[in-house]
Write a structure and sequence with these properties.
Layout: E1 8-9, E2 13-15, E3 23-28, E4 34-41, H1 58-73, E5 84-90, E6 93-99, E7 103-105, H2 106-111, H3 117-136, E8 149-152, E9 157-159, H4 162-176, H5 181-191, H6 203-220, H7 230-239, H8 252-258, H9 269-281, H10 311-324, H11 339-362
Antiparallel strand pairs: 1-2, 2-3, 3-4, 4-6, 5-6, 7-8, 8-9
Helix pairs in contact: 1-4, 3-6, 3-9, 4-5, 6-8
């Protein structure tokens, strides 16, 4: 992809940085908002016999419309769901566009090592809320991975990648048919050996399975299924051959249920969020090494704001402690060596006072 900062795509999206492989940061000149562009390479056969001067090839135009339809049907109000703006074709690339607030991809945080359990629970609760909103709208996501999740400045996780996942699935169907070996081969090329993308079933239950895979990846630093190649991965998923979830700590029972082969035995996205909410309410204070990684505060489904989460509560407790005790909370102590002399002196003072009182009374 030959493009650079300042170049405008689709007459609207001005690139703000040098593009990476099939993705680019840009600004929507119509709204002034930052967006992320993801590209999907279109095979030459989609435009075979088509004159570029006639506009977008018919098959590519159908892909754009399918992607746009899902973007229009997705709930745009949910604060944990990145809004899909649309799609367009530029040359041999199909671009999807979604909003991009400040933050870092979850993949970057996961690459630094296992995520502490309660921080992972907090992230998963956000994602479960986003999935719930999609499922209630009659949609499924199908592209829940560490690459499609953005962790914002306030620590909240936002789910993106909806439109790019739709584009990949639509292209696999167009090139390989609705099912069978050909579609599997095309999809394997487009998706690759990413465990979250290969559930045995689709729909909401498949999204919840993918959330279980992502949770175990965050908690242990690796996928529960082998990812050496698509055939090996798909076979392991089909046979139920995976790493045990015992290493997931307090989230192990939930991960185990999410990875059940039978979709009817898996919790729904709403069940997951409720369970994680209960877990987070009773979460212990993090150890010193974990404080930089997370502050356990259950966020409501509300607007995203920059905030120092958890600081207010701890500051109030500390202030109350200082008001009650100005000496750091330690009771006064008398050295043991002084106890004897103090007692003798006290008795002597009492005797003197007694003599003085008798003399005054007698006088």
């Amino acid at each position: 992809m030959r493009a650079g900062p300042g170049q405008v795509l689709a007459g609207r999206y001005r690139l703000t940085d040098r593009p990476e492989a099939l993705r680019a940061a840009a600004v929507d000149e119509g709204t002034g908002e930052p967006v992320l562009l993801r590209a999907l390479e279109l095979p030459a056969l989609l435009s075979a016999g088509h004159d570029p001067q006639d506009g977008t090839p018919p098959q590519a135009d159908r892909l754009v419309r399918r992607v746009g339809a899902v973007g229009s049907a997705a709930p745009s109000w949910h604060p944990r769901l990145l809004r899909g703006v649309g799609a367009f074709v530029d040359g041999e690339l199909l671009w999807t566009v979604e909003e991009r607030p400040a933050g870092v991809p979850l993949a970057e945080l996961a690459a630094a090592g296992p995520v502490p359990p309660y921080r992972a629970a907090e992230l998963a609760a956000d994602l479960a809320g986003a999935l719930r909103s999609l499922h209630e709208a009659g949609l499924s996501h199908g592209n829940l991975t560490a690459e499609s999740v953005l962790v914002c400045e306030d620590g909240a996780a936002m789910l993106g990648g909806l439109l790019s996942g739709v584009a990949e699935e639509a292209l696999a169907e167009d090139l390989g048919g609705p099912g069978g070996r050909r579609r599997y081969e095309v999809r394997a090329t487009l998706v690759g050996p990413v465990a979250e993308r290969w559930p045995l079933d689709g729909g909401p239950a498949g999204d919840c399975w993918a959330l279980g895979v992502l949770l175990q990846r965050l908690l242990t630093g690796r996928s529960p299924y082998p990812e050496g190649g698509v055939p090996e991965l798909v076979t392991a998923v089909r046979d139920g051959r995976r790493e045990p979830s015992a290493a997931c700590g307090p989230l192990a029972p939930l991960v185990e249920r999410l990875l059940q082969p039978d979709p009817t035995l898996r919790p729904t996205a709403d069940d997951v969020r409720r369970e994680l909410a209960a877990l987070l309410v009773g979460a212990p204070e993090p150890a010193d090494g974990e404080r930089a990684a997370r502050d356990v505060v259950l966020r409501p489904d509300g607007p995203l704001v920059k905030s120092a989460r958890g600081r207010g509560r701890r500051a109030a407790v500390a202030s109350a402690g200082r008001g009650a005790r100005t000496d750091g909370g330690k009771p006064p102590r008398i050295p043991p060596a002084l106890l004897g002399p103090l007692l003798v002196g006290g008795v002597f003072v009492l005797l003197v006072l007694g003599v003085v009182a008798v003399v005054m009374f007698a006088g």
